[in-house]
Write a structure and sequence with these properties.
The complex is a heterodimer of chains A (186) and B (380). Chain A is an alpha/beta fold. Chain A has helices at 15-27, 47-65, 84-97, 118-125, 148-159, 169-185, and strands spanning 7-12, 36-39, 71-76, 109-112. In chain A, helix 1 crosses helix 5 (148-159) and helix 2 (47-65) crosses helix 3. The longest helix of chain A has 19 residues, at 47-65. Chain B has helices at residues 34-49, 54-57, 162-172, 202-210, 214-227, 268-283, 301-316, 329-335, 360-365, 369-374, and strands at 2-8, 16-19, 23-28, 72-80, 83-100, 103-117, 120-125, 129-133, 139-143, 174-177, 187-188, 231-238, 244-251, 258-262, 289-293, 321-325, 341-345, 353-356. Helix content of chain B is 28%, strand content 32%. Classes of the chains: A alpha/beta (186), B alpha+beta (380).
């Protein structure tokens, strides 16, 4: 299968999200050598604020360049104590207060919001029962790269459009968001 | 994996200790001691794996100038072979009173050398005797006559010293590199398993690694096709009975015609890209420690992060260990999203100090780590 020649900018809170997104995209055939990662340098804790601050600049940059080159903006930020919709609204308001139009469905700007956080998705993919309404905190992996088999497995299941049994709602939303992104890039 | 290094009385390294992880980034001002760590590893490698004499490896200029006049002391620890190796070396210094052309020469000698595996001795050498321990722990003692070479370097492999030999072979798998693209020769007259520091012998090493391994070669080729515009494949061309020249084939966009270039005809940046990716495919999954001084030299900005992605993945998957020295913001900001950094600092004529870099200061100031370093705010 030929690699998708798309430049993807990955904007995320921490290393765990970055490697999860990179492994997923690589498994789906994207050339990661053309991607660029923007990771919060401070690690967990202030990541959500970092993503919000960078989001504005990246959306502007995307809109300036999207007609010249094939690019996509992949944003990953944890829901934490909010819902997925509340976090999306926060990002929308960043654009709104800066007089920018909200994200449109035909724009290759994809936002992925694990609820409560990326560890919740990884716990589910490892086979644990995850109820995101409980806002439970799951253990971090010993090494961030240990998420590779789970991220790649998710990519394969998404590709087969397999139903994710008892998956956290935020993960189902993310799969739909990825399908939207894919349809734009293909 | 290299786990720990302790150095005393070697140049600016005095009572100096470093613990390593799978990926390690050394930062600090010039002259702070970063490259000296690589020099120590290189000298220990030379002593343990070659027949070179200790006095040529550790000249007088290597002793700490403001030191107490004592010799060097080194400890190295490796995880591997299902256990923990601990090596120690004490190099003594003697003024030999040899006068030539009004110069006084001094000599270094091996005062003491020990190797332990899981806290059990494998080798114990002092001034008078050499004690070997077989893999089963049986001691064999003899008087010592040779004080100028590592005993490990002259060992002949046998069924009883496999653990000792494993350590010597592991020392060979320290790849200590500062790429100088203009020094890399075009030709190779023989395969070479060992990489020279400036990679002058890259083509001979490439020949050793890739000539008989189609799987690795196709991985490298595929990877470089994504990076080097128009690159098709590698090719060796014989220019004499023994000597070959490495060529790269590129396709022209308009005519689909293939054009061959010798390795030496590439730009410095292209050479470095070929070298850096060759290192990945040549060394991965073989328990190597790759030590590179400023790998980003000669690379264009968009070329750095993709290389780092691959390096990070190889290291975190346990397929490679990396020790990097860099001053480049791209490297610093990407890698320090994980706690992999060490900050070296040193005042004039004093010893080097090192501390792990946390992101606390970056968190408090809101500045990128590279910006903190550029402003000199990470010191102290």
């Amino acid at each position: 299968m030929g690699k998708n020649r798309v430049q993807i900018v990955i904007l995320c809170e921490d290393r765990q999200q970055e490697v999860f997104a990179r492994y997923f995209l690589a498994k789906r055939g994207f050339n990661i050598g053309h991607s660029r990662s923007i990771i919060n340098p401070n690690g967990k804790g202030s990541g959500e604020q970092f993503v919000r601050e960078k989001y504005l600049a990246e959306v502007k940059a995307y809109r300036q360049k999207c007609n010249q080159v094939t690019i996509a903006l992949v944003v990953m930020t944890d829901a934490d104590n909010l819902s997925v919709q509340q976090r999306l609204n926060q990002l929308s308001s960043v654009l709104q207060v800066n007089n920018l139009a909200d994200r449109k469905t035909e724009e290759a700007i994809a936002v992925f919001i694990p609820d409560r956080n990326i560890e919740s998705w990884i716990a589910y993919l490892k086979g644990e029962d995850v109820n995101e309404e409980e806002k439970k905190t799951y253990n971090k992996l010993l090494k961030e790269s240990d998420c590779k088999p789970y991220s790649e497995n998710l990519a394969e299941r998404c590709q087969r459009q397999e139903k994710l049994e008892d998956a956290p709602n935020s993960l189902n939303i993310a799969c739909q968001e990825f399908q939207r992104l894919l349809s734009l890039l293909n | 994996m290299l786990k720990r290094l302790y150095v005393d009385n070697f140049r600016c390294l005095v009572d100096f200790e470093l613990n390593f992880d799978s990926i390690n980034l050394f930062l600090g001002n010039n002259g702070a001691g970063k490259s000296t760590v690589f020099d120590v590893l290189g000298k220990l490698q030379e002593l343990i794996t070659t027949d070179k004499k200790v006095e040529s490896i550790f000249p007088l200029s290597d002793y700490t100038r403001w030191g107490n006049g004592q010799g060097h002391y080194f400890e190295l620890e490796f995880l591997g072979n299902d256990g923990n190796y601990k090596y120690s070396l004490e190099v003594g210094k003697v003024d030999s009173e040899i006068k030539e052309d009004n110069l006084i020469f001094s000599n270094s000698y091996i005062h003491k050398e020990t190797l332990f595996f899981n806290q059990s001795p494998l080798l114990n050498v002092d001034l008078e005797k050499v004690e070997f321990y077989s893999d089963d722990g049986v001691k064999n003692s003899s008087p010592r006559y040779n004080h100028s070479q590592s005993i490990i370097s002259i060992l002949k492999p046998s069924s009883e010293n496999k653990k000792l030999i494993w350590f010597r072979e592991r020392m060979k798998r320290l790849a200590l590199i500062k790429i100088s693209p203009n020094l890399i020769t075009n030709e190779s007259s023989q395969k070479n398993s060992f990489l020279t520091k400036k990679m002058e012998n890259f083509v001979s090493w490439y020949r050793y690694i890739f000539a008989d391994n189609q799987n690795k070669l196709s991985q490298l080729t595929e990877s470089l096709q994504e990076i080097l515009d128009g690159f098709v494949s590698f090719k060796f061309e014989s220019i004499s009975e023994k000597t070959v020249i490495l060529k790269l084939i590129f396709k022209t966009e308009e005519s689909d015609q293939n054009i061959e270039y010798t390795f030496g005809e590439l730009s410095d940046g292209q050479k470095v890209l070929v070298v850096l990716y060759s290192l990945f495919y040549g060394l991965e999954s073989q328990d190597y420690t790759l030590c590179i001084d400023e790998p980003e030299n000669f690379l264009a900005l968009p070329e750095i992060q993709p290389w780092l992605f691959q390096l990070y993945d190889l290291c975190s998957e346990g397929k490679l260990q990396a020790l990097l020295i860099s001053h480049h913001p791209e490297l610093i900001n990407y890698l320090l999203a994980s706690p992999v950094g060490y900050w070296f600092e040193r005042e004039s004529n004093s010893h080097a100090k090192v501390k792990p870099i946390t992101n606390q200061e970056s968190k408090e100031s809101g500045l990128l780590m590279s910006e903190l370093i550029a402003r000199g705010w990470l010191n102290g």
